[in-house]
Design brief:
Shape: elongated
Structural class: alpha+beta
Radius of gyration: 30 Å
Number of helices: 5
Mean pLDDT: 76
Order of helices and strands: HEEHHEEHHEE
Number of strands: 6
Largest sheet: 2 strands, antiparallel
Strand order of the largest sheet: 1-2
Strand content: 25-35%
Low-confidence stretches: 118-126, 128-145
Amino acid sequence: MEPQRSGEGTLTHVIETLLDKGLVINADIMVSVAGVELLGIRIRAALASFETAARYGLEFPAGTDRGTLAWKEATEEKEACPECGKRVPVEELLNDSCPWCGWKSARALAANSSGAEGARTRISPPDDASGDSGGPEDSQIQAEE
């Protein structure tokens, strides 16, 4: 048996988990002598990605521009791809496919199969029903939509 290294203990995995899940530190430190409080320190710290912070409602500094494209992408609802596990916007994952691995949902597969059937062309006879066809130039090609 040879030793194997799992990816769960690496620094990259730890940082990715911290940013994905977030870390909040609340600490109250008080120094008192004979019942008299001499020093009081409150520490509030949060370590998270913008997406995680926005999801949990953490406050951002005043003046944060929330109208940017990056902010909209961070606050967009995302879901983990069942195939590769990467986070993808829900609408894109359900209606199209995963941009990382190409996985397609049942809804996307159904839409693609119905779209392929609807895009077939058919040859129909001309509108005049005289019965005698002057050849293929008299027929009309129509696309179903």
